[in-house]
Amino acid sequence: MEKKRPVGRPKGSTAKKAKAKAARIERQARAAAENAAGNKPASKTAQGDIIFALDIGTHSVVGVLAKKTGGICEIIDMYEQVHETRCMADGQIEDIAAVAEDIKKVKTELESRNSVLLSRACIAAAGRALKTVRASWEYKLEKDKLITNEVLKTTELDAVRRTCAEYTAKTQTSDNEPAAFYCVGHSVVSLTLDGFKVTKPEGHRGERLTTELIAAFMPSYVVESLCTAVDEAKLDVASITLEPIAAMNAVIPQELRLINLALCDIGAGTSDVAVSRDGSVVAYGMATTAGDEVTEAVMKELLVDFKTAEMIKTSTDDEITYTDVLLAEHKIKREKVLEITAEMTEELAKVIADEIITANITPPQAVFLVGGSSKLAGLAQLVSKELGIGENRVIVGRKELFRQIKAPEDMALDAEHTTPLGIAVSSGEGVSYDFTTITVNGKRLRALDTNRITVFELLPLAKIKPEQLMAGSGKSLTFTLSGEKITLRGKTSSPAEIIVNGISESLNSVVTKGDEITIIPAQKGEDAAAKLSDYIDMDSAKSFTITAFGEKTRAGIFVFINGALKNADRFIHEGDNIEIQDLSTVSAVAKNLGIEEGEKLLLNGREADGSETLKSGDIITYAMPFTEVKAVSMSEEGAEVYETPAEEHDEKPEEKPQGTTVIVNGITSVFPLREDGKQPIFLDIATAFSDNPTELLSRANTITVNGKIARLDEVIYDGDVIVIE
After folding, report:
1. DSSP readout, 362-397?
2. For residue 26, what are the CA distances in angstroms to 32, 410, 413, 522, 597?
3. CB 578 within 8 Å of CB 559
4. What is the rounded CA–CA span in Å between residue 213 and residue 280?
5. Confidence of residue 126 (pLDDT cuts 50, 70, 90)
6. How distant is the alpha carbon of residue 13 from its chain centre?
7. pLDDT: which is higher, 171 or 219
8. Any idea of the CA torsion for 440, 442, 443, 444, to the nearest 10 degrees?
C-alpha cells in the first residue's frame, strides 16, 4: 500500500510570519526615526498590572506581555530569544548563566519596545524528573453554614499543602536523606459533599467536604535553577505553574474539559501531556523524546552542527543550501530531509501515543498537538495511527485554537506560542500560590506559599532530617571490675534550637516571606566512657620474670579483660569483665604457686616475711633450717628432750671458686676474673652468652642488674642477680 506523503506546515504560515516581521520592523524603524529627530523616548513606567510571562524552553526563551480584562487575556507584545548554545536539555537548565543572559535579552527588548520596567515574571516548569501524585483529603464543615468560595479555596490550598508534606515524607534520596520537591501545579479532580460528587459546592450546606486532586512535583534543583536564572535577570518569580497546565489553559478551557481530551505540548526537549475528563484535568505526563531528537538525526546524517540541522529541519523551502562540518557546501531537497527525519518522527509519535495511553488508560476522544515540534511533517497522522483514532481527531495547534486570548492582528501566533500564552492566561487563575523566599541557616529557600508555612515544612528544603531535632541521652556503660558491677550514665542531650528573626520558636511556628530562621540540631548526650587507667595505675601494672623455687615465672600486677591479658591502657567496653591479679609480693607469688602460708622463704638468699615487693630477676627459694632433730630422749623428770647433733664438717674445707659468682636468669654461675685480676663487667657476662652480644641485647626486653637497668661497663660482684631476656 502506498504511503501518503506527510503533510507539511499549514499553507500561508510563511506569509503570516513575513507580514508580522514586516510590521515589527516598521515599528522599530519608526522608533529609530523619532530618536534621530531628537525626540526623547517616553520614560518607562512601572510594570503595574502587566503580566510578564516567560517560557524558558529548551530551544528558546519567549516573553509575553499581557493584560487581563474580564475573562479575556489581551496580548500586548511578544519576543523570542533563541539560545546561542545548548544550555538546556530535556526542559531542564544546564547552564544557568547562559539562560539568564537570554532572559535579560528578552526583558530588555520588551522593556524598550513598550516603555515599561519589568520587575516580576510568571514562569512554568518542565523536565524529565516530573512526578505526579493523586490524593484525597476530607474536611469537616460547620453545620448549617453555607459553603463559600473562600472555604473552597482554603480547603484546596490546604489539600495541596498536605499532599506536598506527605509526598516529601515518603520520598528519600539514595543516601536516605529527605528529598526536596516542589509542587509546580495541581488540578482539582473532584469535590464530594457528604458522599455525593458536586461540581460547584458554593451555596450548599454539608458536614464533610472531600477534595480530590492531582499534584505535579519536580525536584527542588530543577525549580531552583529556573528561579536562579530569573533572579540573575533581575526579576522576581511572581508565580510558577506546570507547562502542560499552562498549555491546557490556552487551548482547552474549563467548559471543554467534560470531554476526554488529550493535549501534548511537544517542544525541543520534552513532550508534555495533560488529559481532561468529566470537567477536570485528571492526569499529567512527560516524555524526554521531542524535537531535538529529530534535529540530532539530521546532524548525524548530514554531518552538520545543531544550528544548521535545526535550520534544515524547519525550512519549508523546496531546496535547502547548507555547509557541513568539513566546510563543504551542499544542496538538499525537502523530500530528502523528510526521509532523514521520518524514522525519528515515527518514534516520537509512538512516544507521544504511549504517554497519552499511560495518562488516560484508553485512547482519548481527540488530541491537540501544540509546541514548536508539533509542526513536524506527518506527526499528527502518525499519532492518530498509533492511538487508533481518526486523523480528523488529531489537530495541530494554530492561532484559531487559542481561546480567551486577544492579540494584535499583525502578531503571528502559532503552535509554538501555546505555552507562553498559556502562562499568561494562567496568571491569577484558580487557587494562586507562589514561592516564598525564606532564609534557613543562611541559605535562601523557596517554599510553596500556602499561607501557612511552618518551620517543620521547611526541613526537607533545608536538608534537615526531623530526627536531627530529637536526641536522647548518651549510652550508659556497664562493666564488672574485680567482681563488682559498675554502671556509668551517659550525659543528657542538648535540645534543638529554632530561632525565627532572633526569637525562639517551635517547629509549628508559622513563617512568612523574608523571615530568617536558624535551626540548630539537637545534640545527643555524650556516651559514658572510661579507661582502664581511670581505675588502675597502668604504670604499675607491669609484669616481669623472676625465679621461684628453681623455675622461671612471671610476677607483677596483671590486668585481664574478658580472660585476655592486657598490658596497655584502653577504653572499657560495654559488658567488659575486668580482673586484677596482684603478684607483686613474695607472699602473693608463693600463694599463687600453692605454697602453704607460714613456709619460711628466702628472697635473693635473704629471709623474707612475704611483704617484699618483687622486681625483675628476683629469686625466691625455701629457707633451709639451721638445726635438724636427730633423736628424742626422756629427761629425769620424764619430759621429752630433743637432741641436736653437733654440726658436721667436711674433712677438707670447700675451695672458694676462682671467680665471681652471680645468678643469671635464675641460674648460679661463676665467671672468671678479668686478665688484670679485676672483677668482670656486664659486657663480659653478655659476651659469655652469645657470640654477638649486641644482637642479644637489642632483642632483650629486660636487661637488669639487681633489678636496675644495666650499663655495659657496670662492674659485677659476687651475688649479683642479672636478668637478660
Report:
1. S--SEEEEESGGGGSTTHHHHHHHHHT--GGGEEE-
2. 10, 11, 18, 67, 124
3. yes
4. 10
5. confident
6. 50
7. 219
8. 70
Helix/strand number for the chain, H first, E second: 14, 44
725 vs 713: CA distance, rounded Å: 19
Residue 324 has which C-alpha cell? 557541513
Q: Do residues 413 and 402 lie in contact, with contact meaning Cβ atoms separated by under 8 Å?
A: yes
Count Cβ atoms below 10 Å from residue 220 Cβ, excluding itself. Answer: 19
Model confidence at 705, in pLDDT bands (50, 70, 90)?
confident
> Residue 647: which residues within 8 A CB-CB, separation 6 or more?
none
From CA 564, how far away is CA 559, in angstroms rounded? 8
266: enclosing H helix or E strand: strand 261-266
Which tens digits make up the pLDDT trace of 309-336? 989 998 989 999 999 999 999 999 999 9
Distance in angstroms (rounded) separating the CA atoms of residues 441 and 447: 15
Q: How far is CA 438 from the centre of its chain?
A: 21
Cβ 266 vs Cβ 369: under 8 Å = yes
Which uninterrupted H or E stretch holds 134? Answer: strand 131-140
Cell of 232: 540573575
CA distances from 160 to 214, 217, 277, 286, 328 (A): 9, 11, 21, 21, 57
Q: Residue 437: what are its φ and ψ, rounded to 5°?
A: -90, 120
Q: Which residues pair with 698 in a beta bridge?
A: none
Q: How far is CA 529 from the centre of its chain?
A: 32
Contact 256, 276 (CB under 8 A): yes
CA distance 61 to 72: 24
Q: How far is CA 545 from the centre of its chain?
A: 58
Q: What angle do CA 495, 500, 502 make, to 5 degrees?
A: 95
Contact 469, 451 (CB under 8 A): no
Predicted TM-score (pTM) of the model is 0.59
User: In this structure, how many other beta carbons lie within 10 angstroms of the beta carbon of residue 64?
Assistant: 29
H or E, element range at 477: strand 477-481
Cα of first residue to Cα of last residue in the chain, in angstroms, is 103
**CA-CA distance, 530 to 539, in Å (whole number)?**
17
Check residue 217 and report its DSSP letter.
E
Higher pLDDT, 206 or 20: 206
Beta-strand relationship, 631-634 and 640-643 = antiparallel
Place of cell 510563511: 14
3-class DSSP state of 304: coil
Amino acid identity of 645? P
Lowest mean pLDDT among 363-372, 431-440, 539-548: 431-440
